[in-house]
TrEMBL record:
Top-rank lineage group of the source organism: Bacteria
Keyword Transmembrane helix: yes
Lineage, top ranks: Bacteria, Bacillati, Chloroflexota, Ktedonobacteria, Ktedonobacterales
Keywords: Membrane, Transmembrane, Transmembrane helix
This protein's name: Uncharacterized protein
Transmembrane segments: 12-30, 135-156, 163-179
Length: 184
């Protein structure tokens, strides 16, 4: 025998109820901000659109939603594009490389990456593009609920039902902790 006998935990009605209550409470707690233009999910929508279609496509959003991309602050961009090209030339890098860097523009598709997130964050952001653009934030909330349910099921399978229920409780408390402060 290579591995000891492990008991498989079955998903019970209790687990299904906990997952649906968790999802319902998390969605209800975030529902007040679903269509707001100043939320994190609205930023993710801007990042996703800018990456796949270029920053020139951001004019479809309400005014101000994507200002952080169209008019970035100096703290977000460590070195302006023209200054970067000049420094590359001054260092003596090959002109082909300098011209390649000079030809890159965030207004082109596949060139605008998130400032404060790694490139792989575009994967969950992009999943939300499977629906029409005005439902992006609802789709993003749905995918986050799917992730929360999957974590619950992983805890149930490889830890215990108690750990999974505690996770669901703490996730709800943590998610709702922000809610009262956001209304002030």
């Amino acid at each position: 025998m290579i591995a000891p006998h492990t008991s498989t935990k079955r998903i019970s009605l209790l687990d299904i109820v906990v997952i649906f209550i968790m999802a319902g409470l998390l969605y209800y707690g975030a529902s007040w901000q679903i269509f707001a233009t100043n939320t994190d999910a609205a930023k993710y929508q801007c990042y996703t659109r800018a990456f796949w279609h270029g920053t020139s496509s951001l004019n479809i959003f309400p005014p101000g939603q994507c200002n952080f991309l169209t008019h970035p602050s100096k703290q977000l961009i460590p070195i302006p594009h023209k200054e970067l090209v000049k420094k590359l030339t001054d260092v003596g890098l090959p002109s082909g490389l300098v011209q390649f860097v000079d030809g890159q523009s965030p207004s082109q598709p596949y060139h605008a990456l998130p400032y404060e997130y790694p490139m792989l964050t575009l994967v969950p952001f992009t999943l939300s593009l499977l629906v029409p653009m005005h439902f992006f934030q609802i789709a993003f909330a749905f995918w986050m609920l799917v992730v929360a349910a999957l974590v619950y099921l992983v805890l149930l399978r490889w830890r215990s039902r108690r750990a999974a229920i505690v996770y669901a409780f703490l996730l709800i408390v943590g998610g709702w902790e922000r809610w009262p402060g956001a209304l002030i």
